[in-house]
Amino acid sequence: MSVLGVNGAGKSTLIKCLNGILKPDSGKVSILTFEESDNGLVNVSELDLVGLSRVMSYVPQFIRTSFSMDVFDVVLLGRRPHLKWRISENDRNKVSETLRYLNLEEFAFRKFDQISGGERQRVVIAKAIAQDPNLFLFDEPTSNLDLKNQIQIMKCIRKIIKDSKSPKSALIAIHDINTAARYSDKIILLDNGSIKAFGSPDEVLTEQNIADVFGVKSSVVLTDENYIRVLIDDEI
Amino acid sequence: MELIPTMDSISVKHIEKGKHQVFIVLVLGILTFLSSLIALGLGSSENLDMTKVWKIVLFDIYDFFMNLDIVLENLWHNLSGCFSLSCNNRSIMYGIDREGTALQNSMIYDWRLPRILTAIVGGIALAVAGSLMQGCLGNPLVSPLTLGVASGAALGAALAIVLGFTILSIPSLAIVANSFIFSLLVVFIIIQLGKMRSISAESYILVGIAITFICGAIVSTMQYFASDAQLSALAHWSFGSLARPNKKNLIFMSLVLIAILPTAVRWSWDLNALSLAGDEFAISTGVDPVKLRKNILIVSALMTSIIIAFTGLIGFVGLAAPHMSRLIVGNDFRKLIPCSAIFGSFLMIFADTLGRTLFAPVIIPVGVMLSIIGGPFFMYLLLKRRVQH
Fold it and tell me: Which has fewest Cβ within 10 Å: A44, A157, B110, B232?
């Protein structure tokens, strides 16, 4: 699921309210988790940070690196909500599996600050996967990447959701309308902090909606491969 | 027949790497222990050289175990903090000749041994505090003295020495108590500021700098109006020395350290998350950065203040020991904290012994010695890093 909107519409804010970085002034956040223990519905605001990090994982937009660790250890941090102190064999295996899954094996023992931006992004995604959450939150995962990396990351996210054994979702705050249209099942269109439209790409991305929210004239076409492509003409 | 699935090669390599690092840390620990033994034997006295010292000590250990019951009984009655029964008592006690003269025994047990133990305890405390601070503020240039703990302590000492304003009226502990209380007061102010406006790691550092300026200004003013004797006393306090704490102080410092260390160690995983990539990343791993930062600051300040209140200002160890450890174990706090502790005690023993022996019989205090070693060492580290990048 992608969250689209202009700068300041509230995409990042929404994500940060979900994962506990920001506290909402009013309202409640609940997540459907399909776990038997809690009737499937988890009230997120009642969880502490560790509980939250078991249910959802978050890939931030900017990753500052002050101190460096091996890539393996960074991904291992994703297991922290699940471990007490000692690292079990299960934890290590999960990390190794995830590294292989994302083609990061050759970087396993390189330092986190000595790999490229795209690779670092994949490492943080690996950590998010190792956390084994129900919900993945991505804040602008493609904004700082080159074109090929953008496509690879989006494909990677889709693959994670499709391949996972238990039901999982990903919520992605994103700038680029076409990337969102191409790779999302559903789109949330935010305008000024409220939801203007929600649905599949063809339902949400109408020329009228785009004009209202983004202030640009566009043409929406359906490609041969059956996905929406938005061609931007000019500002209104 | 199905083979039992072996662990994946990456996991195996991770375990190997971990074992390798632990091994190196253990070796370093042993080396540090050996260096403390060597330090016990080194000194400026002419009639007390290494072999003599070890003869005395080994004989005493032998006697100790031979007469364990008498020793224990006497220790119970004699809790004045001596590490061995006083020479005369023992000779009378079981009529054997003590190895070495009373003076030599006193030099070893009342002077050198406490000094070395203080170096170890102080080194551990300052190094661990330093690694905690660097981790929680995400900045490798931070030391336990950064947040104004040192300037608070200096302020307390100055108030006691120059103005006679003391919180505790016991003369021998007046300066100590003042330093301790004022350095904790500084930390308290910083934490309160942190609560008022939820501040980031960078802001903590800036606040620390501001407070250092303020305390420094007050101390300078007092220094300006102080008498020569007071100035001299204050200057001497600011050169941290391991001779100042007596045995009781040493026991007190050790107990505080033993009480606090487990808490610091328990935060290792959280520190890994916090120090790696900022607050948001930490939250995504389930770590509350604001709360953790506050707790770490308090613990680190406690560890530091308790040491420098007794010894005076000792810098460099808190900054250098974590850096040196990082070269060996990387940034995993589960290994970084013990390794820093070892490097910290080694640095203190080394600096103190060097200060005692270099210009014997003049003793250069450990604080000064560390400053002398510190500058060039840091230059070297900086240049080394440039080359790597």
Answer: B232
